[in-house]
Design goal:
The chain is an alpha/beta fold. Helices cover 27% and strands 24% of the residues. It binds flavin-adenine dinucleotide.
């Protein structure tokens, strides 16, 4: 199919807006990117996100028909990083572990994983196998699960790399301004609305789910896999970044208020790190960050279209994971070709009439 070059506006420079801009630019379109807080968008949820590309770890938070799209998206991330060596990416899989008193949670979690007799997707690890993967893991962790196809990417590296490319690209215009699709209607062939939680005033179906993370530097220990510690309240992950920097997160709180991190959350995050390895007691805290996950009632993302406005939102805990695949879907919508139907399902309407 031959593609006509279009004049496209994108509102929002989080991971969704940036990856849509990159995909549409690569297809030869002219792109104008609006972002209310300038570039790169350091206050977006995307900028502070963990960057786990972890569909199986997140199996409780999505429907099984999303797994294929997630694995495809991880492949697209693999292609993305090839010409961009500054973007930190690892695909050694994730390790799931539990303290002795929470072992039942690990065992229960394994029941949610797909049957996998050939051990292509996941494997239960004994203590020696666990030690083989992460020699620093203390002996109190006697068992683990290895989710082999999972990966992690550093979202800030992605956003910075794309920002650098866009500023040198004549086909791209970056405008630091808050706009709505209605404000700029009539000026573009298509408008992509990627405002994340910034669209909540216009979309009554969106809600915010706050997440909090801590970043620490610990030169005294080396972990190379994403490690998830089973936690009674929410999944907590430790994601190793370059130079012995570790991210721990994230909390999950039903609120749209992006205010400061609470003392309770800080204690939970830091004590989990300390419980992973005692050397974290001397780690340096590099920062605490909070962000709002834009979410629909079923916590699944949507691509919707009204006239020439295409909206991509509701990525909840999975915006980094799914961004390349969603950007592909948005580009298909621009061209008028088929979008993966998992992204276009109507929202569930569970409201009952009051008699
Ligand atoms: C703590 C935390 C950890 C997370 N960890 C992971 C993870 O490990 N893996 C994963 O896949 N996902 C993770 N997520 C989820 C992921 O961050 C989100 O799903 C994703 O970032 C949402 O991207 P977005 O581009 O839709 O929204 P955002 O990142 O919020 O970006 C929206 C952008 O739109 C701009 N904007 C808003 N309104 C306007 C306007 N009117 N005009 C112009 N610009 C506007 C904002 O300034 C912002 O730059 C995490 C989220 C949080 C909070």
């Amino acid at each position: 199919m031959t593609m006509t070059q279009q004049n496209i506006a994108i509102i929002g420079a989080g991971i969704i807006g940036m990856m849509c801009a990159r995909t549409l630019r690569d297809q030869g379109h002219t792109v104008t990117l609006y972002n209310k807080d300038g570039f790169p968008s350091t206050s977006s949820a995307s900028y502070i996100a963990g960057g786990m590309l972890a569909p199986y770890s997140e199996i409780d938070h999505m429907t099984p028909d999303f797994i294929g799209a997630c694995l495809h998206s991880i492949d697209l991330w693999r292609d993305f990083i090839k010409p961009r060596p500054d973007v930190h990416f690892t695909d050694k899989g994730s390790l799931l572990i539990a303290h002795q008193e929470d072992l039942h949670m690990l065992q229960r979690f394994a029941h949610h994983l797909p049957n996998d007799e050939n051990k292509n997707v996941w494997e239960t690890l004994s203590r020696p196998q666990l030690e083989d993967k992460e020699s620093a893991l203390p002996s109190k962790f006697q068992q683990g699960l290895w989710l082999k196809q999972e990966a992690a990417i550093h979202p800030q590296n992605v956003i910075s790399a794309l920002h650098d490319e866009f500023t040198q690209d004549e086909g791209m215009t970056l405008i630091a301004q808050s706009v709505t699709p209605n404000d700029i209607a009539g000026h573009f062939d298509h408008i992509i609305d990627a405002r994340g939680d910034g669209a909540m005033h216009d979309d009554q179906n969106l809600r915010g789910v706050k997440g909090e993370i801590a970043i620490v530097h610990n030169p005294d220990v080396t972990f190379t896999h994403t490690v998830r510690i089973m936690h009674p309240r929410y999944p907590l992950y430790i994601v190793p970044r370059r130079d012995h920097v570790y991210m721990i997160g994230a909390t999950q709180i039903e609120t749209s208020q992006d205010d400061a991190l609470s003392l309770r959350s800080a204690m939970e995050l830091l004590s989990t790190l300390y419980s992973l390895h005692p050397s974290f007691a001397d780690a340096k805290i590099l920062g605490f960050h909070t962000g709002i996950r834009p979410s629909y009632s079923d916590n699944l993302p949507r691509i919707t279209q009204r006239d020439n406005i295409i909206t991509c939102n509701g990525t909840y805990r999975h915006g980094i994971l799914l961004a390349p695949s969603l950007a592909e879907g948005v580009a298909n919508a621009v061209q008028g070709t088929k979008i993966n139907p998992i992204y276009t399902k109507p929202l569930p309407n569970r409201t009952q009439k009051v008699a």
